[in-house]
Amino acid sequence: MSNVGIVIVSHSPLVAEGTADMVRQMVGDEVPLAWCGGNGEGGLGTSVGAIMEAIDKAWSEAGVAILVDLGGAETNSEMAVEMIGEPRASRIVICNAPIVEGAVMAATEASGGASLQDVVATAHELAPA
Amino acid sequence: MTNVAPASLPTLIAAAADTIAAHADELTALDQAIGDGDHGLNMKRGFEAVRAEADAFAAKPLPEALKAVGMKLVMTVGGASGPLYGTLLMTLGKEWPATQDRVSVAEALRKAVDAVAARGKSQAGQKTMLDVLYPVQAALVEGKNLPEIAAIADAAAEATIPMKAIRGRASFLGDRSIGHMDAGARSSALLVRAVVETLGDV
């Protein structure tokens, strides 16, 4: 699929999965989508390994936009992108946007075939100034 | 500067994992005050995972072992402290000097702490682990002995109490973060003490 992929990373698997459900309802299967959440032991947290797997799953040649909730999700996502390395790393962007609204708006933009840059810009419009 | 032989790595790892395990509840309590309350458990999970493979790490040359331990922390801690401590050790391994005189090791440590600052988009004075790591690095530059370095680390962690958090979850609290010790600063001081006490016994 050539549409930009969306990855949702929350400390809570319930938040991540619920956000993904909302995205699916909006855009169906038009957008590669993956989510991850939790520390791997059933607790709250984020896992670099799980984020890397989610990026693989949602991978698109057009790139991947990641939506995160709190600080640790961002730091772990940055680490995951770095570990994935080039040539893919420069086509993965972590969005500065609220996770639910950002994921839905980014996916809607992506479903129309927008570029990674435009998908990310749409999500960033939601960020508090 | 004590030359760290790879053979002492399992002892170092055990000392680090022991102090984290012994203080896990305290770290969690500190983190509950101004963070999200997962620091103790996260660090314990990461360091126990490192302990479980201590012999495999020790079989590698020290720079490679440091990188591998850092990577293990990245993959197992489950919070932001994983990439932060992981980056510290991975960079230290990458920059580890061929000859381990004090100046060369201090320079490698400076690069490693700078990498943590870059990873966390932070700097000294923002109530983080950097507020312990930079003073420890400076102490090494100044040629302080091992007990002095441990004492400096403890004092530096204490000095985060009146600071106002600007980075991380604690920054959401603004002025309310003042009056609590930063959990990452505390875990850094604990690890510094564990390392220097182990090296001091060599």
Automatic annotation (TrEMBL), chain A:
Tree of life domain: Bacteria
GO molecular function list: phosphoenolpyruvate-glycerone phosphotransferase activity
A Pfam family reported for this protein in Swiss-Prot or TrEMBL: EIIA-man
GO biological process: glycerol catabolic process; phosphoenolpyruvate-dependent sugar phosphotransferase system
Record-annotated PTS EIIA type-4 domain positions: 3-129
EC number assigned by the record: 2.7.1.121
Free-text function comment from the UniProt entry: Component of the dihydroxyacetone kinase complex, which is responsible for the phosphoenolpyruvate (PEP)-dependent phosphorylation of dihydroxyacetone. DhaM serves as the phosphoryl donor. Is phosphorylated by phosphoenolpyruvate in an EI- and HPr-dependent reaction, and a phosphorelay system on histidine residues finally leads to phosphoryl transfer to DhaL and dihydroxyacetone.
Protein name: phosphoenolpyruvate--glycerone phosphotransferase
TrEMBL record, chain B:
Keywords in alphabetical order: Kinase, Transferase
A GO cellular component annotation in the UniProt record: cytosol
Xref: Gene3D superfamilies: 1.25.40.340
Keyword Transferase: yes
Gene Ontology BP, a term: glycerol catabolic process
Segments passing through the bilayer: none
InterPro entries: DhaK_L_YcgS, DhaL_dom, DhaL_dom_sf, Dihydroxyacetone_Kinase
Start and end residues of each DhaL domain: 7-197
Keyword flag Lipid biosynthesis: no
GO MF annotations in UniProt: glycerone kinase activity
PROSITE patterns documented for this protein: DHAL
Organism domain of life: Bacteria
First and last residue of the signal peptide: none
Protein name in UniProt: Dihydroxyacetone kinase subunit L
Organism: Kumtagia ephedrae
Gene encoding the protein: dhaL
